[in-house]
TrEMBL record:
Superkingdom in the source lineage: Eukaryota
Natural source organism: Adineta steineri
Keyword RNA-binding part of the UniProt annotation: no
Ranges for domain Glycosyl hydrolase family 95 N-terminal: 120-276
Protein name in UniProt: Glycosyl hydrolase family 95 N-terminal domain-containing protein
Gene3D superfamilies tied to this protein: Ankyrin repeat-containing domain, putative glycoside hydrolase family protein from bacillus halodurans
Molecular function GO labels: alpha-L-fucosidase activity
Per-repeat ranges for ANK: 48-80
Amino acid sequence: MILSELHLSCCNGDLDKLKEYINKDNINEIVTILNEAEDDQWTLIQYEELTPLICAIQNNHLCIVKFLVEQGADIYLLKTIRTACQYKHLSIINYLLDILIVKYNLISLKRSPPLSSLSLWYEKDASEWLEALPVGNGYMGGMIYGGYPREIIQLNSDTLWAGCPHDYSNKDALNYLSQIRQLIQDNKWNEAQTMLTQNFFGKPIGQAPYQTVGDLFIDFFQESSSSISIDQYQRELNLEKAIATTTYSTSNGVHFERTCFASYPDNCIVYNVQASVRYS
């Protein structure tokens, strides 16, 4: 019920009540809950897939938004600023833009296309999973978003999948083999297929789906970063070399290049950051 109580406090703008639910004894649980959707018991008010932070933004409670962010609520998700803009809550919009560190300018300086014709390249970072650039080695994989000031890498491993270890073999399959062959010889294909599916194939028939390992966040912070903008942004996936690269220049004159690839021999994902100025 903690999440339901958090939602209610955020919607009502009750900061004192909200603080009652957040204390040093449950802070780790709260930080996780702040970034999750509502529980089943909260569907009475139909706040579908809303975090407490989104509830507070929708109801224009700036003090609640500030408090939740201080407790660890993730404002880097695009939905936060989008919601504030949708409801035209200017005070929250300004606060979020300041906290987000970088106020993006229109990119006036653009980079030239990559030299390799076997490259996918884009002039802005990925806003959703389908736009991210993949790297993988057969064991593990990563989806590179190429964001600034926060890089997001969604990780995947072949050892993490739904369900639990089990035996796919069907011990009774042999008992039906002769019947299935006879049905095929009699051109009774539908009956043969039904018997195959029900009595011959392993259980379950389908492969259990892989599950995400999680999201890796890499934050890039600099001095006076609230006034820093970027240009000449480009992210690229070189299909020939299997390397994902993100390049950009900041308004204080520093050029960055971030490179990521997955190594098969070393069974690892490598992420390298280079800057034109030391300690930047």
